[in-house]
Amino acid sequence: MTRRRAPLALAGTLLLAGTLLLAGCSGSDEPETPEPSASSSPAGPGSGTPTPAAAPEPPRDRACYQLDYTEAVAPTVEVASTPCERPHTSMTFAVGPLDAVVDGHLLAVDSERVRGQVARACPERFTGFVGGTTEDQRLSMLRPVWFTPTVDESDAGASWYRCDVVALAADERLAPLTGRLQGVLGRADGRDRYAMCGTAAPGTPGFERVICSAKHSWRAVATVPFDQAGYPGVAKVRAAGDEPCKDAGASAADGALDYKWGYEWPTAAQWQAGQRYGLCWAPD
Question: Which parts of this chain are annotated as the region Disordered (predicted)?
């Protein structure tokens, strides 16, 4: 069975939100072989009796990899690690065991329950690894991705999950990782290195979300969180950003009386997928 994860979102689970652009003035043993019976001969080369394969070793935590975007969003990956001193686009920040036994039955590695376990564990561990506030993480281009053994590896006894951190350079493209990543969003230089920017005003032709180390003209400067269980509707999520984004734009303008600001609000589909916040933008 072939599985693929949803594309890495640039501003949450999905990011094709409606955009409002306004100008403000004031405002993560080899199995024992049973002893042969008295009437059998020991297995050996050419005997036709296969020797059980040892389970593959689990991935190494804090290993680095040179992945492309397609590899990063795949459910399994067999790319060899590379020294972290060399160019790389992915680093493992957590490795854990799969909870694949339910009522004494072993679940398939690609079962919904196993996939769900990993999809919860890696984002949770990502939060503690990169540091910073929830808003710092939402305003960055760093994302968690995760992998499990292949079906063949699982059949051989492998039972682990691996969480990696990657940085989006732009849509479906990864950026190189540099420096110490643990706690990176708790540091001003780290927040700036991996911040989310735009090539034009959001909602206008030519707009693309890019990492701020690339050429850009706008920056995501704040978020507008929502705490409702159900989607409030377009009118309400749109209106909720007016004042906070206007204030964020004014702050980014360093006191200038004439300034611009933009706001992206979550759609109903994005809300259902878990993105319950909007983004405020300002020229940079």
Answer: 25-60
- Interval 94-126: pLDDT, tens: 999 998 766 566 677 878 888 889 999 999 999
Specify the number of domains making up the chain.
2
| Phi, then psi, of 244 in degrees rounded to 5 | -60, -40
Asked if residue 7 belongs to a domain, the reply is no
Residues 220, 175 share a domain: no
**Distance (Å, whole) CA 72 – CA 92:** 12
Task: Determine whether 273 is exposed, middle or buried from the number of CB atoms within 10 Å of its CB (0-12, 13-18, 19+).
Answer: middle
**CA–CA separation, 265 and 234 (whole Å):** 8
* Residue 3 placed within a domain: no
If asked whether residues 207 and 228 sit together in one domain, one would say yes
Owning domain of residue 185: 59-194
Angle of CA points 131, 175, 206, to nearest 5° = 110
64 within domain boundaries: yes
Closest CA to 154 of 76, 60, 102, 51: 76
pTM score over 0.90: no
Decide the pairing of beta strands 277-283 and 218-225: antiparallel
